[in-house]
Protein: Transmembrane protein 45B
Amino acid sequence: MANFGGHAIPGSFFLLLGFWLTVKYVLQHYWRTNQPKGRQITPPFFKKMEYFEGGFQIFAAFVGIMVEQFVVDGPHAHLFNKDGNPWVKLMNWQHSTMYLFFGIAGIALVASNVSKLVPAGVDRLTISLALFVEGFLFYFHVHNRPHLDAHIHSLLLAAVFCGSASAMLEVFIRDNIILEMLRGGLFILQGSWFYQIGFVLYPPSGKQWDLEEHSNVMFVTMCFCWHIAVALLLVTCTFSLVWFTVKRFSARGRDIEIGMRNTSSKSNSQKALLEESDEE
Structure:
């Protein structure tokens, strides 16, 4: 949708997904680093997280498609019009196509956890494909648009294509925390930049931006770098918070377990002494 809401919806989706991936991969990395060598059994909790993530992607994609298609001025599932302009709201159709591929990625994620017949890495491959399709559509989305409009969308392509490349690397390099954090951070960057696009092109209040002013282009470019820094900071803070929280609770759990074992051993010792005294 060519309005602020049309950018806030995907922005919210990508922000939530980015934070979710960051938390999930920190938990998985903590679990991997604290397991004995050779142990490969994944706890059921992690599978439930994958199901939730896949379901969220499918649901968000469905909602996005419905909004793009059936908003008041949307195409209402009509692609071709016989009267006048033959194409109906192609921008909405492009956005719907973008959501479609993220829905496919969600289905692949669920399927890869449900069935062992699905090859490992299909979930990463499909999310990489979804990001590539998003970037591919946006690349041709901004032709013949005002200078600032085209530029601010071209900056988005940097986050999108880098995310696609990162996910593709994960197909071949599994369980690499750097790549996993990179993908989460790029989703956060993409989400925040969608909001920035909405505020620049469709400000909810205040003056409209001059879309041909070169200084605005310079500022937006600098602003994108700030978004990168903020995304990096958010990933770092989230990683640290989750890691130390889990570590603290894990230490408490081990202390309780050790205490219970010590109490149990003391009870057994006392019981043995009493039995010996009774025998005497």
Summary: The two ends are 89 Å apart (CA to CA). Residues 206 and 236 are 34 Å apart (CA to CA). The chain has one domain: 4-279.
